[in-house]
Amino acid sequence: MDRKKLVNESIDYIMQHLDGELSFDTVAAHFYISKYHFSRIFKEETGESVYSFIKRCKVDQSAIDMKLNPMKAITDIGLDYGYSASNYSSIFRKHHNTSPSVFRQSIPTQSMSVPFTPERVVHFKTAEEYDTHIEVQELNDLFVLYERFIGNYVEIEKHWYQL
C-alpha cells in the first residue's frame, strides 16, 4: 500500500473509531504494520504524530457532542472519549483556549454563520431531532474522488482553492 493511501485509510479508521478504545497501537495493528514504521510515515505525511492526531480528533469531536447534546454533563462527554473528569477539562482548555463550560455557552447551539459567507446562517437541530429524520437506503456503487486536507483548519480559507 502506498504511503498516502495508508495515511488516508488510517485517518478514516481513526475517525470511525474515535468513541472506542482507540490507540496508536490498535491503528498500526489494524493495518498490519510496525507501529514504529507507521509512526514515521504518518508524521512525514501529516506533520503530526498519530497520538497527537487521535487526541486532537477526540477533543474536536467531543466539542461537537457538547453542542449537539446540551443537556449531557461535560464530564460524561469527556468520559465518552476516554478522559477522566479532571484530565478532560485541562486537555480541552489547552486545545480550545477555553474551558468546556465556557465553550458550550460561547456559540449558540441553534445556529452558526457559515465559514466564508458569514451573512448566511445555518440552523442546527438537536441530536434527537436529527435521529428522527435518518433514513437508511441502499445505493448503487459510486466512484468518488476526494482530496483530504491535512493541517490546521483555522487557515483553511487560505488553502481552500488548492483543494
Q: Helix and strand layout, with pairings?
A:
Blueprint: H1 3-16, H2 24-30, H3 35-46, H4 50-68, H5 74-80, H6 85-96, H7 100-106, E1 111-114, E2 117-123, H8 127-132, H9 156-159
Antiparallel strand pairs: 1-2
What do these coordinates show?
It is a single chain. The chain has two domains: 3-105, Homeodomain-like (Arc Repressor Mutant, subunit A, Orthogonal Bundle); 111-161, no CATH class. It starts with a helix and ends with a helix. The chain is built from nine helices and two strands. The chain has helices spanning 3-16, 24-30, 35-46, 50-68, 74-80, 85-96, 100-106, 127-132, 156-159, and strands spanning 111-114, 117-123. It is mainly alpha-helical and 163 residues long. It is globular, with a radius of gyration of 18 Å. Helix content is 54%, strand content 7%. Pfam families: HTH_18 (PF12833).
Task: Please name the defining characteristics of this protein.
single chain; 163 residues; mainly alpha; Arc Repressor Mutant, subunit A; two-stranded antiparallel sheet; 2 strands; 54% helix
